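B., you asked whether I could sanity-check this one before it goes into the benchmark set. Here's the sequence:
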Amino acid sequence: MNCRQCPRSCNVSRESEAGTLGCCGVPWQPKIARAALHFWEEPCISGEEGSGTVFFSGCNLGCVYCQNQSISQGRNGKPISIERLSEIFLELQGQRANNINLVTPSHYYPQIKEALSLIRGKLKIPVISNTSSYDSIESLKAMEGDLDIFLADYKYESAELARRYSRATDYPMVAKQALKEMFRQTGEPVFDERGIMQRGMIIRHLLLPGCLEDSKSAIRYLYETFGDSVYLSIMNQYTPLPHVKKYPELDRRVTEEEYDELVDFALELGVENAFIQEGEAAQESFIPEFDV
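And here's what the prediction gave me:
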């Protein structure tokens, strides 16, 4: 079967013995770099117990500044069977995880769906798609009923920034359509008695150096489209890792003044349901070590 799983539509046979790879850079067999409790997500996701996070290798977007580059583009990780993937989900549940948090899952949606079908009735916690939002509508519709929460990025309003930093001029158009489909599936947010999200959407936006005006446009779009029916997560944790040296404008951290201006802009728009990061968020502790 030739892969048209994401908007890149590579149309390569990821299942072939020749190991043909598309833009995501990984074969059809699930490959993961890490599965563990993670405590650095938004409070309603991690809580005190942690989020049961599974980091998938490969990525269909490939942002030049990715903090997880060793797995998204370096493709570090270990191939596992679909049966083993389902076992990992149950093991994380057994560790009292608040949810199963699938990081960069888009290129593995069919395999994830199969893994979830093997443990239907046994898995009692919500399943999260932690996605760049560079998702096709067809793949999202195929997952309807299997995903409870979308922890989704909206990276750029500018097609030019999307081209320069993610090789995807169509990112804003694709992501807007994808976010609307995600919201159709989840609807208004639902929380349990502890304040842990059980259903709904959190849309993340990471402020990049020198991109304040684009970030304002992105926040405006999101609020005008979804209002307070979704939560926004306005992030300042951008970390200039060594591989961004060829993009000098990205080779610095976001200033406190830039971030404060973006938060103030959101508040002036009327945003009420939002997460903001206080203090010096761009620390190495936000970047997990990847191992198998």
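One thing to flag: Residues 281-292 have pLDDT under 50 and may be disordered. Otherwise nothing jumped out at me.
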